[in-house]
Amino acid sequence: MSSSISNIKREKRQMLENYIRDNLSKYKPILTCDSDAIFVMDLDGFFIPLNPSCESIFGYERDQFLKMTYMKVVSLDYLERTLSFFYKALEGQLQNFDCQIIHKNGEILDVNITNYPIIIDDEIAGVYGVAKNITAIKKKRRRLMEEIRQREETYREIVEHSPDAVIIAGKKSILFANDTAVYLFGAREKDDIIGKNALDFLHPAYLEIVQKRIQIVQNGQPVDFIEQKLIRLDGQMVDVEVKSIPTIYQNIPARHIIIRDITEKKRTQKLLLESEKLTVAGQLAAGIAHEIRNPLTAIKGFLQLMEVNNASDHSYIDIINSEMNRIELILSELLILAKPQEFKFEKNCLKTILEHVKALIDTQANLNNTKVIIHYSTEIQEIRCDENQLKQVFINFLKNSIEAMPNGGEIKIVVKQHNDDHIQISFIDQGCGIPSENLERIGQPFFSTKESGTGLGLMISKQIIENHKGKFEISSDTTGTTINVTLPL
After folding, report:
1. Residue 148, Cα to own-chain centre: how many angstroms?
2. DSSP letters for 439-451
3. C-alpha 43: how far from its chain's center?
4. Which of 329, 369, 337, 373 is nearest to 354 (CA)?
5. Contact 103/58 with Cβ under 8 angstroms?
6. Is 429 helix (H, G, I), strand (E, B) or coil?
7. At residue 390, what are phi and psi to the nearest 5 degrees?
8. pLDDT digits 0-9 by tens, 267-317
9. What is the mean pLDDT of the chain?
């Protein structure tokens, strides 16, 4: 029986050799140039090399190759699967697979092999094979995978030890959380968080805006930090800042979410604000006491004169009334700062308002060797405004100009038509000017170029102008400062 099988195999081998000689010899020039090893295997897996690349890839000469089977050259780790592919090819199936072979010099090479059956007279007589050396490709791929693995490991280490909480979330559930996130969420271990919906920890008031942000990230765009409130597992509320970045986690699209606890930050800000309020209150109290003391001294003096003279001098009474009005104005400004009053818009003559303001400020201007001049370059029309509020703004601008001119000088108030619907009032002084780096901060609370200033005066003035649908612009250089106020007619 075994003799009969051997005869059949020898016949099939002979058929293969005849087939190669009769049908493949004409392709010899092409086969010779091919860098891939091209060969035939008989039913026992013995090689019949077809081109010189068989010798260069496997390392054996032709005579040696003819006496070898694939089991001789295939690495032991890949032998079982290679045998499986060989038999499938003998069953008529085309096979393509990667494996490792052992070169004659002992070097391990990565190859890609394609096997498909050779059919002669309707019978499978052997297997046609092509082996491509992919060692360089595999090494490059392994090196790349190692680099990726190392980067992922480094990234994981950075994330794990980040002072900010980091979670990675898929469409619905949390896929990863670092140790900081476990602590922030009030969990005992990562499994208490992973698998849960990130929105379950969100305060309901922020749900709508967060869902919109999720959609943006899922479309491939990052979203910057915004303040939110989280509900910990123990029910405690936490103030946080949250940023989200699109990423890939375990080959699926995900969101890299950075969560920063700002509880301590907000507590510090609150303490600073309270401290600033106390500072401002102290400055206001000192300023108000000083401002009110002057008119009170005058009133007291004139009352004493009236008592000594035992007469009612009308000039004394006028001065006393004037000083009382001044005290009332100071207290009104304080009330506006403490609690802004409702605006009363009425038609008023701008010229009358400016003349009243000039009269109020002239005494202080004269004491500082400063002269206030009003120049009208257009016919002054009535404007709809709150008279007292605008007076407060103009007085504040003029006081600042006087303080910026310690050696005296001239302050111009120029009134002109800005366009058909607006009028512009410019306050131009000859002071030392404001440095360019400070100009952008003018009008911000608690920022002032004056040593004892709070910045609240300009801030309130700017707000009043905006409430009048007007514009406030300031420019300055070493020759002085110009403030332009544009108001609708």
Report:
1. 26
2. HTTTTSTT--SST
3. 66
4. 373
5. yes
6. coil
7. -65, -40
8. 877 776 566 555 555 555 655 666 666 677 767 776 776 766 665 666 667
9. 80
Residue that the structure tokens 């400062």 belong to: 481
Residues 371, 376, 382, 384, Cα dihedral to 10°: -60
Which residue has tokens 């190859």?
Answer: 111
φ, ψ of residue 44 to 5 degrees: the values are -95, 0
Q: Select from 293, 295, 292, 280 the least CA-distant residue to 338.
A: 280
Query: What is the rounded CA–CA span in Å between residue 467 and residue 193?
Result: 50
Cα–Cα distances in angstroms (integers) from residue 379 to residues 160, 349, 376, 394, 420, in the given order: 72, 11, 7, 20, 12
CA angle 410, 414, 416 (to 5 degrees): 170
Tally Cβ neighbours within 10 Å of residue 92: 10
Instruction: Note the pLDDT of residue 98.
Output: 93
Tokens at 150, concatenated: 């190392």
Q: With contact defined as beta carbons under 8 Å apart, do 133 and 57 qualify?
A: yes
Name the residue type at position 296: L
Residue 260 CA to residue 164 CA, distance in Å, equals: 5
Which tens digit of pLDDT belongs to each residue from 121-147? 888 888 999 999 999 998 898 888 888
228, HSE (Cβ side, Cα atoms, 13 Å): 27
Q: Can you give the length of the chain in residues?
A: 489
Task: Report helix angle 387-403 to 456-467, nearest 10.
Answer: 140
Residue the block writes with tokens 């401290």: 275
Of residues 236, 233, 235, 224, the one with CA closest to residue 263: 236
Q: Phi/psi of residue 226, each to 5°?
A: -135, 155
Question: In 413-475, which ranges are continuous DSSP H helix?
Answer: 436-439, 456-467
Tokens of 423: 């009028």
What are the CA-CA distances from residue 242 to residues 179, 210, 263, 340, 428 (Å)? 17, 10, 13, 35, 47
* Average pLDDT, integer, range 75-103: 91
409: left (phi over 0), alpha (psi -120 to 50) or beta: left
- DSSP SS3 for 341: coil
277 vs 33: CA distance, rounded Å: 89
